[in-house]
Amino acid sequence: MANEEDDPIIQEIDVFLARSLLEKLYLFQYPIRPASMTYDDVTHLSAKIKPKQQKVELEMAIDTLNPNYCRSKGEQIALNVDGTCTDETSTYSSKLMDKQTFCSSQAASNVSRYAAAVYKKGELHLTPLHGILQLRPSFTYLDKADAKHREREAANEGGDSSQDEAEDDVKQITVRFSRPETEQARQRRVQSYEFLQKRQAEEHWVHLHYYGLKDSRSEHERQYLFSQGHGLAENTELIKSPSEYLMMLMPPSVEEENDKPMAPSNVLSMAQLRTLPLADQIKILMKNVKVMPFANLMSLLGSGTDPTAVLRCVQQVALLVQGNWVVKSDVLYPKDTSSPHSGVPAEVLCRGRDFVMWKFTQDRWVVRKEVAAVTKLCPEDVKDFLEHMSVARINKGWEFMLPYDEDFVKKHPDIVQRQQMLWMGIQAKLEKVYNLLKEHSTPKKQEAQSARPLLVSGEQRVNMAKAKVKQNYGQLEKELQKQKAEMKSSDTSAKTDLPNIRIKEEPGGREEPMDTSAHGEGLNNGLVNGLHPAQGPPEPLNGHLPGGCIDRVAQELKAFVSSTFKKQFVLTLSELKRLFNLHLASLPPGHTLFSGISDKMLQDMVLDTGCKQILVPFPPQTAASPDELKVYALWEAGDTYDQHRQVLLEIFSKNYRVRRNVIQSQLSQECGEDLNKQEVDRVLK
Q1: How many CB atoms lie under 10 A from the CB of residue 523?
Q2: Sequence spans of domains, the chain
C-alpha cells in the first residue's frame, strides 16, 4: 500500500487496436547513416520487394555536394566498377559513387508480440507488425569491380594472334547423362543450401513506388495507423480480464513446432515400432541393421514375443549366413528401383548382393576385386554390398562382421537345414547367370575350416580324439557285420532256386542320393551355412527306403513332377533339380521327401508321369553340364496343342537350332492346317 501511495496514477490513457494496416505494416531498421546522408536530404531512388521471402532492396542517393563526402574516393570506386566507358549498363552513370543499395534481413522470426504505437489526443493506437527488417549496405558493386578486373587481365593475356583465335574456336565438350534420381537423393537435393538459394532467386522482384515523408499520399497512409472506430464491437480484443491480459503480455513458454528437432521420415522410435505388426517390426529392424544374431533380434522385440513366430517372420525377409540373419537383397532393393551410383536396375543389384552373401556362406573372408570381376558392377555398388555385412581388414580383404553363431545352429537344426536348401537353389542360379568356375563355387578346405573359428583346449582335443576313435570303431564293426551278412545271403541265394523272384542288382552296390548342386562334392568338404553334412537328412538304409514310406514318397514326388511340367512343359534335369530344391526348402521339417531322392528316382518319376526325354543334338563343343544336356518334355498335356507340341519336339530332336519359317512350314505340313503368327508363338512359348 505504501508503494502505491508513492507512485500514484497520473493519467489514464485509452488504448485502441487499429486493423487497417494489419499484415501490411513493416518496421525498417536503418544502420547509422554517414554524415553525408542526413535524414532530410536522403532520396530513395527505387525500392523493390519479394513478398514470400519478406526481402526488401532499397536504393538511396548520396549527397555528393556535402562537405563530408570524399569526391576522389567516389570517383575511384565508380572507375573500378564501370571502367572508363559509360553506357546504360553502368552502375554509376555520373562517374561518381552517388548512390548506395541496402538489402534487408529478418530481425525476428516471430513478430506477433510487436506493434507500432501512435499517441494522439490522449489515445494510444496500436497496429500489429507483420515483419521487422534490418537494412544493411549491399556491396555487390565490389563483385562487379572484381569481374571487370578479371576481364581486363584475360584480355591482356589473350593476345591478338589469329592463330590463337582459331585454336580457341575448337574446344572439347564433355557430354554427361544424368542418372535416375532416387527418392532419397531428391530429398537431399531439395533440402540443400544450393536448391534453397535457387528457389529464392526464382522469385521475381515487385517494384515499389516510394513516397516521401511530406508527400500527400504518405499523409493519407499514416491515417490508417489510427483506429477507424472507437466502438466496443471493434475493440473486443482489449476487453479482457486481468488474468487474460496478463496471459497475453506474458504467454507461457511453448516451444514452436518448427524449432523442435524433426526425426527423419524413415526413423521410428522403439515405442512406435512396437505398435506395428510383428512381421513389419522384423522387416524394419532387419532393413536398418542388415545383419543381426537371433538373440539380438529377440531382445529388440521385447519380452513375451513368441520365438517360433519370430523365426517364421524373419525367414521371409532375411537369409542365414554363418548362423546370423542377413536381410534379403529384394528388401533393400525393391522392384522398379535402381542404383544411386550407376543406375543399374534392382534385379542386377540383387543378383550381385546375393553373390556376396553366398560367398560369405563359404568363407569368412571375401576379396572385393573378385566380387567386382564376377558381378561386373561398379566399385561403389560392390562397396555398398560389402559394407552391409562385413568389415574391411588391411591387406586381408573383407571379413564377415559377426562371429559364427554356433548356439543358434545347435538349437534350430531344422531352420539351418531349410536355409541350406535355399542357398543351394541360389547357388545354382548364380552359377547359371555368372558362369562360375569350379574354384569360385568350391571352397578350399582351410577356408571352410576358418568359417567356424573355435578355441579348443588340450583336454578337449584328447576327448574329441577318443570319441572319434570310438565312432570309427563302431562304423568299422558295422561294415564288417554288413559284409558278412551279404556274403551269407549270396551263398543262400545261390543254393536256393526261386524262379518267380527277380533281384535287380546295380553296379554301384548302393544308390547315391541326388546331387543337389553342380558341385556337390566341393560343398560337402566344408561347412555350408553352418550345417555339417553329418547333420543332414537321414539317408535310406542300403539305398532303399522303409517299406511304409515308399508309397508316400512316390506320391509326393509324382505330385511335384506333374505340377511342375504342367507349368513349364520343357525342363532340363539341372533346372528340375533346382526347382526340387526350392520345393524342399518350402516343406516343413521331417517331411517324407527329406528321406533322400536320387537322380535316378527323379528321372524315373519324370518318365512315369507321361514325359519323354528329348535327345537334342547339342554341338560337341558346348560348355553345358551333363545335367543341362538332359532335356525332358511333357508329351501329352490334354490340350489342343498336343499334336503341334509333339511335332515341335521331334524337330528339335533332329537339330538344336531351327529357323522360325522352317518350324511354321513343318507344323502346317504335319498338322494339315495353316497356323497364324499368334498360334506359332504360343506353341513356341
Answers
A1: 25
A2: 14-62+98-151+192-207, 270-434, 548-684
Mode of pairing for the β-strands spanning 123-128 and 14-17: parallel
Identify each DSSP E strand in 108-191 by its residue range.
115-120, 123-128, 131-137
What is the rounded (10 degree) CA torsion for 409, 412, 416, 419? -130
The span from the CA of 642 to the CA of 424, in Å, is 34
Helix/strand/coil (H, E, C) string of 618-634? CCCCCCCCHHHHCEEEE
Query: Cell 560337341, residue?
Result: 620
Average pLDDT of the residues of the chain: 75
Q: How far is CA 252 from the centre of its chain?
A: 44
Q: Is the pLDDT of residue 233 over 60?
A: no
Strand partners, 123: 14, 120
Least confident of 501-510, 615-624, 662-671: 501-510
Identify the CA nearest to 396 among candidates 454, 321, 450, 323: 450
Q: CA-to-CA distance for 589 and 568, rounded, in angstroms?
A: 27
* Residue 285 pLDDT > 70: yes
Q: How many residues comprise the chain?
A: 685
d(CA 17, CA 39): 30
CA angle centred on 438, ends 432 and 440, rounded to 5°: 80
- Cell readout for 556 is 509326393
- Is the predicted pLDDT of residue 506 greater than 70, yes or no? no
Q: Write out the E strands in 255-340.
A: 291-292, 318-321, 324-327
Alpha-carbon dihedral 484, 485, 491, 496, rounded to 10 degrees: 170
Residue 634: CB partners within 8 Å, gap ≥ 6? 565, 566, 569, 570, 610, 611, 645
Q: In what order do the strands lie in the sheet with 324-327?
A: 291-292, 324-327, 318-321
Query: Does residue 153 carry a pLDDT above 70?
Result: yes
Model pLDDT for residues 665-685, shown as the tens digit of each residue: 777 766 767 667 777 777 777
Q: Which helix (H) or strand (E) holds 571?
A: strand 570-572
Question: What are the backbone angles phi and psi of residue 653, rounded to the nearest 5°?
Answer: -75, -15
356 near 385, Cβ under 8 Å? yes
Cell of 293: 544374431
> SS in 3 state form for 426-473?
HHHHHHHHHCCCHHHHCCCHHHHHHCCCCCCCHHHHHHHHHHHHHHHH
CB neighbour class for 554 (10 Å; exposed up to 12, middle 13-18, buried from 19): middle
The DSSP symbol for 144 reads H
Give the Cα separation of 280 and 287 in Å (integer). Answer: 10
> Rounded CA gap, 117 and 127, in Å?
7
Residue 516 exposed, middle or buried by CB count within 10 Å (0-12, 13-18, 19+): buried
List 99's β-bridge partners, or say none: 61
CA distance 431 to 439: 12
Closest CA to 357 of 380, 324, 379: 324
Neighbour count for residue 59 (Cβ, 10 Å) = 16
pLDDT band at residue 507, thresholds of 50, 70 and 90? very low
Q: What is the pLDDT of residues 469-487, one digit of tens each?
A: 666 666 777 777 777 776 6
**Phi/psi of residue 633, nearest 5 degrees:** -140, 150
Residue position matching grid coordinates 518334355: 633
Please report, for residues 355, 428, 429, the alpha-carbon distance to residue 434 in angstroms, rounded to integers and kept in the order given: 9, 10, 9
Residues 6 or more apart from 611 whose CB is under 8 A from it? 561, 565, 632, 633, 634, 635
567: cell is: 507349368
